[in-house]
Amino acid sequence: MVTQLIISRPKQWTNWRFAYKVLLNGKEVTQIINGEEKIISFAEPSTIEAKLGLAKSNKFDLQNSDIIHKIRIKANTWTNSIVPIFLALLISINVYFRFTNAPAGATNFIEGMLLGVIFSIILLLTFARDKFLTIEVIK
Questions:
Q1: Looking at residues 73-86, what average pLDDT do you find?
Q2: Which of 79, 93, 120, 127 is the most buried (most CB within 10 A)?
Q3: How far apart are CA 13 and CA 41, in angstroms?
Q4: Distance CA 82, CA 89 (A)
């Protein structure tokens, strides 16, 4: 039995320039842009997830049924808004302490920026990697 799945992506200011890859059982089936809605079909129980670069969403299990499933893929506002603000705050604090404790301010500024970049890369590749996008059921 073939089941249809309606995938929608709301218009959001975060990631508006990028298309999300939609993966069904680990294989890319389509890409969805900001404000778009697409219909895909699947014949067996499947797992769906969305991907944007190295970041991805939670995995969502789909079951075969006669009903049409409808899901929404959107950017997680916490990882897309709060985390960058938190990183900027950490960089600012780091830069402030490095400027006040050492005379070589420019070197310390660059070290502070590099520390922030390294921290954000580690955060993206580990803790926030599967929380960057969200898949939810629309009823």
A1: 72
A2: 79
A3: 29
A4: 11
